[in-house]
Amino acid sequence: MDFELSEDHRAVQTAIRDFTDREIRPVAREMEQSGTYPTAIVEQLKHMGLFGLGVPEAYGGLGADTLTLAIVFEELSRGWMGVAGMIGSHGMACKLITLHGTDDQKARFLADLASGTRRSALALTEPDAGSDLQGIRTRAVRDGDHYVVRGTKTWVTNARHADPLPVLVKTDPSAAPAHAGMSILLIAMDSPGVEVTRDIGKLGYKGPESCEVVLDDVRVPVGDLLGGVEGRGMQQAISGLETGRVNIAARAVGVAHRALEEALRYAEDREAFGRPIADFQAVQLKLADLATSVQAARLLTWWAADRLDSGARADTESGMAKLFASEVALTASLEAMRIHGGYGYSTEFEIERLYRDAPLMAIGEGTNDILRTVVAKGLRRDGIPH
Ligand SMILES: Cc1cc2nc3c(=O)[nH]c(=O)nc-3n(C[C@H](O)[C@H](O)[C@H](O)COP(=O)(O)OP(=O)(O)OC[C@H]3O[C@@H](n4cnc5c(N)ncnc54)[C@H](O)[C@@H]3O)c2cc1C
Fold first, then answer.
1. pTM of the full predicted structure?
2. Which of 82, 86, 216, 251 is the least crowded, having the fewest Cβ atoms under 10 Å away?
3. pLDDT in tens, 49-61
4. 248 lines ligand 1 (CB under 6 A)
5. Which DSSP string corresponds to 305-326?
């Protein structure tokens, strides 16, 4: 048992922290509020190889482990959680192609995805089905060497920059169980019939766009069926979720840590009744509770990442980490706002963005109630982790 990061992990943490402090923190508030797309930051992420974080080295990626991924996502999110979102669902798509793609699909896509020349995303959710993915309606009908795809996907993060876009479809809607009739197609975004119809307005998580994508009789070559075998789409999607949940947990830790940083600094600077408010025990209690829960969330996230890196099943661990860390982010951003008094409510301080960004982590990659059901299932299957 060693609670210290290895030298390599520590070096990644220092490098991403320095980058975030230098390039992201000074511009995040202004860019987020003005709705400016952080093009220059994205270019730097490409340059640093972060689009290929989890892509094997054989395809030009960094081949990083899940703990490295957690460190990177936490540090970026300390600056601006939206920037982490630029490489989040992209990384999920890379993972799916790495784990399940045919040799041809890996050769065609992975090197370009690793360099960021191509970017990707993930289209699972539909207007009428999110938690219940087996209830999706997007249909892919085989027609010779193609599938003809019809349906609507929503909340697709980075949709305007993605190509190919992995899309969860039904290839056999009569299959029982329903997941046996589901597949993922890697859809070229310049195919006739694909349209990004709108950007969805949202509370926070500004930076990456979140879009509705309409697929109107889109012809997709059968060679773009992920893995080349129908009926595996749901398992493929789920296989990426454990890493995805560690990713969200790490982002939540980053947001919570930043809220704590801001609160501590403000409490020491702000004076009331002739002394810094950090002298008041009521404020100290909040700071102590925040620091304790942020560190607990970080350790839980690293534990889940380590479990994944050991090759073990980690749905319970990643579920616990995402559930706990996202609740910590929600609490931390609100408590930090209270410590800031009126200024916490102002758009001239960082806190209001953290407060708007935090709730997403309780929704994405499975809502927290869905995750509670995942954790409970794990407890009944494997016992209580200890
Ligand atoms: C900013 C943002 C970005 C996103 N990016 C992506 C993306 O890139 N790709 C993508 O595919 N999706 C994306 N999503 C969608 C996200 O994954 C879904 O919103 C999420 O899975 C919940 O689905 P839903 O919104 O349909 O809610 P619903 O499934 O309708 O759930 C509504 C409520 O019912 C509860 N509920 C539902 N079923 C159960 C149950 N069995 N037990 C207990 N409670 C239940 C939920 O917990 C929730 O409280 C994004 C969402 C947001 C907000």
1. 0.97
2. 216
3. 999 999 999 999 9
4. no
5. HHHHHTT---HHHHHHHHHHHH
